[in-house]
Design brief:
The chain is of the alpha/beta class. The chain has helices spanning 10-21, 56-63, 84-105, 140-154, 184-195, 220-233, 250-260, 274-277, 289-293, 303-313; strands at 2-5, 27-31, 49-52, 69-72, 109-114, 162-167, 169-171, 198-201, 214-215, 217-219, 238-242, 248-249, 267-270. The chain has a domain at 2-171 and 217-245 and 285-300: Rossmann fold. The chain has ten helices and 13 strands. The strands form four sheets. Strands 3-2-1-4-5-6-11 form a seven-stranded parallel sheet, sandwiched between helices. Strand 4, helix 3 and strand 5 (109-114) form a beta-alpha-beta unit. Its cofactor is NADP(+). This is ADP-L-glycero-D-manno-heptose-6-epimerase.
Length: 321
């Protein structure tokens, strides 16, 4: 059995689909399963059992001997949430419990960390274990992920293989339910349909022109391929960046979305909302040398290829993958 937590969410449901396409149907799906907007994400997918997140640790203790791997994708990911207790419960302590059970039953554990751990990028974007205690995440979400990464590396007992994946800006199908936290591509298409225009956040720093804030945008189809590759190849345990290794601007992203819709770009700017302005990342770019050195040789979707596939094959008709 293979377990996917966060299975009704964005990345989790895409991983379920990818595993189904590879022939895996003996999947145990873990989530809350009470968000109606997530229901379409699991339509047409094959799996024998769903478990509520709160019931999963006890289930794993009883069934761990038959589990081949736990893909722990589930997490509280709202970067505007300020209640530290929520992140302590869902991102930190819950993951510690799964780690301990996976260690006991010798189950490989692949879990979602985040590029939010890098904060403003003062120390670069290297998945180097030695810099974790120097990182300064900009919000409680990023801190919860960094706190767990630090804790994991301090443990004398560990699963036989484990990997913490520092997801950069993931985009792609099955994020319809994410609202404000959905990718800018998703919001660009919605705004274009409603008004024919796209409004990007204005820069509030003199060293960045409006629209030139840049991120490492990675297509979800690449993310799930890396998850599976790590499970099958089990390189050295540790933290791995998961981006493309190339930062692209939000201007590029919006322009390419217009092009995928066969429209001329019409882009304006609005102030960055006050509640995220002070903690806004102006640049991220994954150093992908560790994953490459571990043997991952697949090419990543370019932003042009990823946006074209996402817009034309999914967003245009609100299809899920």
């Amino acid at each position: 059995m293979l377990v996917v937590t966060g299975a009704a969410g964005f990345i989790g449901s895409c991983l379920v689909q990818y595993l189904n396409e590879l022939g895996f149907e003996n999947l145990i799906l873990v989530d809350e399963f009470d968000h109606p907007d997530k229901f379409p994400n699991l339509q047409g997918k094959s799996y024998p059992e769903k478990l509520h997140r709160d019931d999963f640790p006890d289930w794993l203790r009883s069934n761990g001997a038959g589990v081949e791997v736990v893909f722990h994708i589930g997490a509280r990911t709202d970067t505007t949430e300020q209640d530290v207790a929520i992140f302590d419960r869902l991102n930190l302590n819950y993951t510690k419990e799964l780690w301990q059970i996976c260690t006991e039953f010798a189950i490989p554990l692949i879990y979602a960390s985040s590029a939010a751990t890098y904060g403003g990028g003062e120390h670069g974007y290297r998945d180097d274990h030695d810099i974790l205690d120097q990182l300064e995440p900009l919000n409680p979400y990023g801190r919860s992920k960094n706190d767990f990464d630090i804790w994991a590396l301090e443990q004398e007992s560990a699963p036989p293989f484990w990997a913490g994946l520092k997801f950069f800006n993931v985009y792609g199908p099955n994020e319809y339910h994410k609202g404000r936290m959905a990718s800018v591509i998703f919001h660009t298409m919605r705004q274009i349909r409603e008004s024919g225009k796209m409004r990007l956040f204005r820069s509030h720093r003199p060293d960045y022109a409006d629209g030139q804030q840049s991120r490492d945008f990675v297509y979800v189809k690449d993310v799930v391929k890396v998850c599976y590759w790590l499970y099958r190849n089990t390189p050295e345990s540790g933290l791995y960046n998961l981006g493309t290794g190339q930062a692209r601007s939000f201007w590029d992203l919006a322009t390419l979305t217009f092009q995928a819709m066969d429209l001329e770009p019409d882009i304006t700017f609005v102030d960055t909302p006050a509640d995220i302005r002070d903690n806004y990342q102006y640049f991220t770019e994954a150093d992908m040398s560790k994953l490459r050195a571990a043997g991952y040789a697949e090419e990543f979707y370019s932003l042009e290829e990823g946006i074209s596939d996402y817009v034309r094959n999914y967003l245009a008709e609100e299809k899920v993958w």
